[in-house]
Amino acid sequence: MKLSVQEGLLPGDSFGEKLDHAAAYGFDGIEPGGAALLDRLDEVTAALENHPVKLSTICSGYRGSLVDASKAERDQAVGDITRLLEVGGQLGAVGLICVPCFGGPKLPDLSPWRNAETLELDLVVDLLGPLAEVAQKAECLLLVEPLNRYETHLLKRLSDAVEVVERVGRPGVAIMADLFHMNIEEDDTPAAIRSAGAHIRHVHLADNQRLQPGTGVTDFRAAFEALREIGFKDYMALECGIRGDRANALQECASYLREQMG
User: Fold this and answer.
1) What's the distance, CA 165 to chain centroid?
2) Closest CA to 223 of 262, 254, 166
3) Would you say 108 and 138 are in contact if contact means Cβ atoms under 8 Å apart?
4) Alpha-carbon distance 23 to 9, whole Å?
5) How far is the C-alpha of 259 from the C-alpha of 262, rounded, in Å?
6) Which residues pair with 241 in a beta bridge?
7) 225/41 Cα distance (integer angstroms)
């Protein structure tokens, strides 16, 4: 297992400086957002060349939405996701993080034929099929992320994402497990990880109050043991607020996480 950190948590005026800080703090990877990545692709590519810190993943950053009543919104999301998957492959990323739906229902309730959630899940599966082929060709996974009940109504638990991934049935789509969201939604985080198994290809790390690991009550050791049992060897990226001096907090957090990894 390898540690990554979201770009926005790092100091530095350039991508290269952020990579240097990530290395100094004890991280193996960096996770930029997708929104501004295309505008500085040359800078990012040059900075990553021969650097010990690698680009672990791309965090969303596409326009539009996969679940929307507007075809224009859906088409925009598919187009942006396609391009970011291609870029992710060029940069060696494990995958692109994708949240299918934020907030409440976006499609009408057509009961008794189909309720809104059923329609939305069918739509997600249909759209992820062709994107899975793009991901497989690019060698950059499309990582479906469940959120929590306060941020989405659709995919809230790892089992929800597993159902979608298995319905798509193609190797280009996998799951990202976020320990903060899991702390809200899962009955047993290690058990949920074991159940999702090899579908998990990326992890987001934050403590129960969404600050850096080690400042709350989340049992990271138990979660990491479950990840080890399923053979997880990919990146785990910090996505959290930072309490205290940023440089010291990030160094201490990386050390704490490595201790919990054993």
Assistant:
1) 15
2) 262
3) no
4) 13
5) 5
6) 211
7) 36
* Spatial separation of the C-alpha atoms in residues 100 and 155, rounded to whole Å: 8
Torsion sign across C-alpha atoms 32, 22, 90, 161: negative
By C-alpha distance, which of 27, 29, 33 is closest to 250? 27
Residue 36 pLDDT grade (very low, low, confident, very high; cuts 50, 70, 90):
confident
For the cut 90, the answer to whether the pLDDT of residue 115 exceeds it is: yes
Contact 182, 192 (CB under 8 A): yes
Stated pTM of the model: 0.96
Domains and CATH numbers, the chain: 2-261 (3.20.20.150)
**Cα–Cα distance list, 126 to 74, 172, 238 (Å):** 12, 14, 31
What's the CA gap between 229 and 62, in Å, rounded? 33
Output the six-digit token pair for 27: 């991280």
Say which amino acid occupies 248: N
Rounded Cα distance between 241 and 232, Å, is: 25
SS3 240: coil
Q: 97 pairs with which residues across the strands?
A: 59, 143
What is the token pair recorded at 249?
């907090």
